[in-house]
Amino acid sequence: MTAFILKRLGFAVITLFAVLTIVFFIVRILPGDPAVAILGDQATEASLAALRSRLGLDVPLYQQYIEFIGGVIVGDWGISMVSGRPVITEILKVLPSTIELTVASLILGAVVGIPVGVWSAVRRNKLPDYIARIGSLLGLSFPAFVSAVLLLLFFSIQLRWFPVISSGQGSSLGDRLRDIALPAINLGLIMAAYITRVARSAMLEVLNQDYVRTAKAKGIAFSVIIWRHCLRNAMIPVVTVVGLYLGILIGNSVLTEIVFNRPGLGKLIVGALNQRDYTMLQGMMVIYTLIVVLVNLITDLTYGLIDPRIKYS
Amino acid sequence: MKTRIGVALASVLFASNALAAGTTLNVGMAGADAGKLDPHVATSTLDKGLLYWMFNGLVRIKPGEASPAFIEPDIAKSWTSSEDGLTWTFELRDDVECHGDYGKIDAEDVVYSLKRSANPDISAFAKDYTAFDSVEATGPLEVTIKLKNKIPSLLGLLVPYHGGNIVCKDAVEALGDDYQRTPIGTGPFMFAEYQPQQYVKLVANPEYFRGEPKIKEIFYRYIPSDSSRDLAFQSGEIDMIYGKQEQTWVERVKQVPGTKVVVMTPGEMSVIHLNMSMPPLDDIRVRKAIAYAIDRDTLVQFKGPDVTLAAISPVPEGHLGYTADVPQYPHSIEKAKELLTEAGFPDGVTIKAIHTVLPGMLSTMEAVQAELREAGINLEIQTVEHATFHEQIRKDMSQVVHYAAARFPVADVYLSQFFHSDATVGTPNAVANFSHCNAADKEIEAARVEGDPEKQLAYWAEAQKKIMEEVCAVPLVQSMQLWAWKDTLDLGTEVHGSLNLSPPVTEMAHFTE
User: Fold this and answer.
1) In chain B, what is the greatest distance between 2 CA atoms, to the nearest angstrom?
2) Are A109 and A192 a contacting pair, CB within 8 Å?
3) Which family does the UniProt entry place this protein in (chain A) (predicted)?
4) N or C, where is chain B less crowded by C-beta within 10 Å?
């Protein structure tokens, strides 16, 4: 197990290095000048050149690259070209909000998706199954920003249960729950739609296995068969989907953060892209890569917990 | 028991955290986050709007107005100028306190501040101050500015806008790099807190020299989604919002009970710049054909009569030096076709434009495209992301450049930045002369140093005529600045305009309920 984890972490370092290299060059190949973004459209070419020099953008690309990689290794991710604040500080300020939203959505998605998927499989081709399938299809089809606006219209404007914008001042549990409820529902229901479909198909496959038929013949209660024997075996594809979906969840969180006006990595990356904030984009990519690598590692380790037959070598 | 738990949970969830009314102003601004909050560096509407409430200049434009015709004392209580207009002496007030514990403003602070604005290594607006020969403290509360040559509006450079914002020397030196995150000014409101991607909180400055503000707190909230901003206003969480430059926005927001929608100057001027260095636009007949093919009245109807004005001259209406007495090209498809035929394009012509994906600008350009098509002019629009657009048009890559900009409301600014040959894209001093226009260099330069206001106006008028005669560009419309606020918020003045593009929230602003 330890060897497996170390091996995976070794691969993670290589992946991180490759991603950073690609991102470094891609952001610089993209048209768009950070100096214009910072000084505005009234700046003369001479002022823009002076700023490029201050930002270190006038030195050869390979030199910028060496400095960047050197900085990453010693933990110096640079200063945001636009705000002038350290990249790491900017990211760490909003990272907890994104993690909070992602975890809340994952929990909501799993809590709703798994039981509905199981229920749908057990009642295959009956009314509950049709309802679950149509519901999950709707969840998958709805763009996150549309469902977000609909949630706001209904719960914030009509019912006035939740605020339209995050108060940003919430230190109490009540304020935090109020702030996160609608964004988490928005992302969680999409997540639930994915999980429902995967849980249903995995469950259907397991329900046709010989050991299920044997358990039924032995007279074991149906609920015990489902929850103790079938569900555990059906969980591996679900866990895989949850792991893979995290990337999509981060993507959808960009829109969700903007519509619900929550702080987070999504808003940060959109601003950095618009303003060609190279250092910020690079820092963000380090974080995103780390998140994906870690989630994949956790997903792989979870397989062993679900199915003891899986051995790590 | 279950009921009690339910009630407790509901009370936790739905307990109102409604923001205090009466002395707290919640502002919803379009944007994801604060940029640099140093007034000599901040260039975005987002940042300038906030800094407007925190800083003073030597002079100011009367709150609620945007024209330099309304200049009045601010930190300086009086000023004199020499007969040749090259030496200006300002007497400062003795009761202007810097925010925090940075003491009173004196002549040293003002000298430091103006020199900082003129320093290209620090300031984004250094080029505005190149005519400054010296800035000296000639007394504890007296500052003398000497100019190398006359400039169109010295006082315009000293209002609290861009480099004219006066910073406190001790604060800038003590805070170093942190100054761009903790701005210290002398205005009615003081910086208190910054929450990333959420808000900047300002508090009333009790020492403000015009009196303590009635509003005690301002939350300047960053809400990038237009729909969320509108919904937050509708739900009452926001008292004042930045609007979209669309007729539908005005009509929709007016429906919200107790709302005041305000249209402000300066307008953002939309102009089609025609690159005269590239065929077929090097032929004036083709350029005139384009001018005749565009119907401004239809564009105004399309963009919304409440939010746009037809533009006639390359200088926006209402700006110092504007004239409507320029060659005009009334809409005529026949005339456009005749000119194209004369130019050797009887079957029409194709021209290309690199254009931003920003929806407000793109919709205008698509309307122009449809109008030009009627005259046989095929305008091919290549859309690129906004930062790419700015880079490519400055590399002289587009035959047609659609540009929308709001500037300091003096004719010289528009004429110098967009139509003087020194500002031609691709040259070392390039700013935004996308058309390679050089038709009025002489008049633009003469107006800059002319001491007689009448003659100066005449030069500017002549420059506008020549630019329109050459059809370096086709002015389209002016899109006005839109804001809405609750009608219980009284800003203490009628609001017609604001140079910094945000409404004047001063010591006079208060809620009536």
Assistant:
1) 90
2) yes
3) Belongs to the binding-protein-dependent transport system permease family.
4) N
Instruction: Give the separation between CA B222 and CA A95, rounded to whole angstroms.
Output: 18
Q: Where are the domains positioned within chain B?
A: 11-258+487-511, 265-480
User: d(Cα B329, Cα B407) in Å, to the nearest integer?
Assistant: 25
For chain B positions 392-431, those within 8 Å of chain A (CB to CB) are 392, 394, 405, 407, 417, 427-431
In angstroms, the Cα distances linking A141 to A184, A190, A194, B398 are: 18, 9, 11, 39
Residue A86 contacts B, CB cutoff 8 Å: no
Q: Are A195 and A242 in contact (CB under 8 A)?
A: yes
Find, among A101, A136, A138, the residue nearest to A253 by Cα. A101
CATH class of the domain whose range is B265-480: alpha beta
Query: How far is A189 from A181, CA to CA, in rounded Å?
Result: 12
Rg, chain A, Cα only: 24
- Return the structure tokens found at B42: 């901040």
Q: Which residues of B426-450 are buried (b: 16+ CB within 10 A; e: fewer)?
A: eeeebbbbbbbbbbbbebbbbbbeb
Q: A83–B198: do the CB atoms touch at under 8 Å?
A: no
Per-residue pLDDT tens for A201-235?
999 988 888 888 898 888 888 888 888 888 888 88
CA-CA distance, B309 to B64, in Å (whole number)? Answer: 20
**B317 Cβ contact list (under 8 Å, min separation 6):** B267, B309, B311, B324, B478
Average confidence (pLDDT) over B373-394: 90
Q: Which of B26, B161, B198, B408 to mutate to test the interface with A (most CBs of A within 10 A)?
A: B198
The CATH superfamily of B11-258+487-511 is: Periplasmic binding protein-like II (3.40.190.10)
Residue A90: which of B180, B196, B390 has the nearest Cβ?
B196
Threshold 0.90, pTM exceeds: no
B84 touches chain A (CB under 8 A): no
Binary contact (B392, A160; C-beta < 8 A): no
For A130, A138, A226, the CA distances from A197, given in Å and listed in that order, are 12, 12, 17
Fold agreement between B11-258+487-511 and B265-480: no
Quick: pLDDT tens for A59-85.
Answer: 888 888 888 888 888 878 888 887 778
Of residues B217, B232, B222, B262, the one with CA closest to residue B509: B217
Name the strand (E) or helix (H) holding B494: none
**Contact predicate A198/A235, CB 8 Å:** no
Q: Are B423 and B473 in contact (CB under 8 A)?
A: no
Q: Is-contact B125 B76, C-beta < 8 A?
A: no
In terms of Cα–Cα distance, which of B71, B75, B162 is closest to B118? B162
d(CA A39, CA A232): 58
